[in-house]
Design goal:
Blueprint (H helix, E strand, L loop, with lengths): L1 E5 L3 H10 L5 E6 L2 H10 L3 E4 L5 H6 L7 E4 L4 H13 L5 E5 L9 H4 L8 E3 L1 H14 L3 E7 L4 E7 L11 H7 L5 E8 L2 E3 L12 E7 L3 H8 L7 E5 L3 H10 L7 E6 L2 H10 L5 E5 L5 H6 L7 E4 L4 H13 L5 E4 L3 H7 L6 E3 L1 H13 L4 E6 L6 E6 L24 E7 L6 E4 L11 E6 L5 H7 L8
Parallel strand pairs: 1-2, 1-4, 2-3, 4-5, 5-6, 12-13, 12-15, 13-14, 15-16, 16-17
Antiparallel strand pairs: 7-8, 8-11, 9-10, 9-11, 18-19, 19-22, 20-21, 20-22
């Protein structure tokens, strides 16, 4: 597949790293010669220095033969204009644009076939808001992902001393939670991955990833790390992101109280005028003003979320909030080096805007019947939700038991969701479980290079249609 990536920033680099393979022919365009040189040193791809919204630059990058355009420059206008050019001049069938201006969400006709001709639009702020809201709902978790219309939840959590499952084997965990449909995906102990066997003992500080039926996710998480629901949430220096997250948390429909601290007067005044619920307050508070933070009740916060576009500011805000008595901190960090450095400190959870955008992009990039794709916390692995179609004659998977399917080495099935809506049934993977037409399979893929083989495995013979 010929893929044209516009923008060699953090998201562009991550997308290239994810898609580079023998099966993909990738060209990346950026105005920075330094960035292009770095990309060509790291990956087997072609680089073009130039303006991504220029027809001549796109032509020299091979747009005429491209199958997919991914526009992820730092400029919304460039991304949208590139989609228009890709459609009208080069006839590229798939055109994905990253757009930051959330106001445009209210005008879908401008973005689609009647306007800029993007076939898919990625909203990075909305992706972040979704991640933050899940982490606030389950404040003990490091990562929370949903699959199959939220029927399944995948979470990562650190086990703690005296938790119900700490000191127990995996076999005992299943016995202690007989109603829970769950599957252990990974266990890390002091940065070393353990094999998930029935006799594996869960220890304090283990980092555990589990796939579970969503109706019992809270019960299972609490078995590793008991927690109180977050009712007082403090958002620091988020600006528009704070407004979007407040709307998502729906404080007027729950017991939650949201406090927004902003260091700039004009931003604080704007948010105060827009957010009028009596369960939301906006205050002019600098992130390092200890006295004012205490006066505003930082010590009563269940969760503090640092949301500025400055990594160092967010780290300092979170550390100070925890020192002053906040129970838990979540920090927005762009630099992966910082995320690694703060692991094990008073910063409880870090969220990467790059990874949030990448997760949304993967949903649109994966082919065939892949309807969801997410990168796993810490692992260089990916979780796929893929639909099985066909009959025993037309499909390589339908009508076969899981143990009979020729999955690539290392690929495992976590669960199958059968049916739709309220009638959907969650079936945890067993070797003898047979795949049926329209089943949703949740796969865990340790090596991204085999993803195309998985997509081919689920292809249906032409005769099916």
């Amino acid at each position: 597949m010929k893929i044209l990536i516009l923008g060699a920033g953090r998201v562009g680099r991550s997308v290239a790293e994810t898609l580079v393979s023998d099966a993909n022919d990738i060209t990346i365009v950026d105005e920075s010669a330094e960035r292009i040189a770095l990309m060509q040193e790291r990956f087997d791809l072609r680089g073009i220095v130039g303006d991504a919204s220029s027809p001549s630059v796109l032509s020299s990058a091979g747009a005429m033969d491209a199958d997919l355009l991914i526009a992820v420059t730092a400029n919304d206008e460039t991304n949208l204009v590139a989609c228009t050019l890709a459609a009208q001049i080069f006839n590229i069938p798939m055109r994905i644009a990253r757009v930051r201006d959330s106001e445009l969400r209210h005008y879908p006709r401008i973005l689609g076939d009647e306007g800029f001709r993007a076939t898919s639009v990625i909203w990075p702020e909305l992706a972040l808001v979704t991640q933050f809201s899940k982490l606030i709902t389950f404040p003990a978790a490091q990562q929370v992902l949903n699959f199959a219309d939220d029927k399944l939840t995948l979470f990562t959590v650190n086990s703690i001393e005296n938790a119900p499952l700490t000191g127990k084997t995996l076999e005992e965990a299943f016995r202690l939670l007989p109603q829970a449909k769950m599957r252990f995906i990974s266990i890390y102990r002091r940065n070393r991955r353990l094999e998930c066997r029935n006799d594996t003992v869960i220890e304090a500080d283990d980092e555990i990833t589990v796939l579970v039926s969503s109706d019992c996710a809270e019960t299972v998480i609490e078995a590793f790390h008991p927690f109180e629901k977050a009712e007082t949430i403090v958002l620091i220096n988020g600006g528009e992101l704070s407004a979007l997250l407040t709307d998502k948390l729906e404080p007027t429909r729950s017991k939650r109280r949201v406090k927004i601290f902003e260091g700039k007067k004009e931003i604080a005044e704007d948010l105060s005028h827009r957010l009028t619920s009596n369960r939301v307050s906006v205050s002019l508070v600098k992130h390092d003003d200890t006295l004012t933070l205490m006066q505003e009740g930082i010590d009563q916060a269940d969760v503090v979320v640092a949301l500025s576009n400055n990594d160092e500011t967010n780290i300092m805000a979170a550390l100070l909030a925890k020192r002053l008595g906040a129970k838990r901190s979540i920090v927005l960090l762009e630099n992966q080096v910082y995320s690694d450095l703060v692991r094990g400190t008073e910063v409880d959870v870090t969220v990467s805007p790059t990874q949030a955008s990448l997760g949304e992009l993967l949903r649109h990039i994966r082919y065939g019947d892949v309807v969801n794709a997410q990168e796993l916390y810490q692992d260089k692995a990916e979780a796929l939700e893929i639909i099985a179609h066909g009959t025993k004659k037309s499909s390589k998977v339908v009508g076969k038991a899981l143990k009979e399917i020729a999955f690539p080495k290392g690929v495992s099935v976590g669960a199958i969701v059968r049916g739709e809506g309220d009638d959907a049934n969650v079936l945890m993977a067993e070797p003898d479980l047979t795949v049926m037409d329209d089943d949703h399979l949740i796969l865990f893929v340790p090596n991204k290079k085999v993803i195309q083989r998985i997509e081919h495995l689920f292809e249906v013979d032409v005769g099916f249609f």
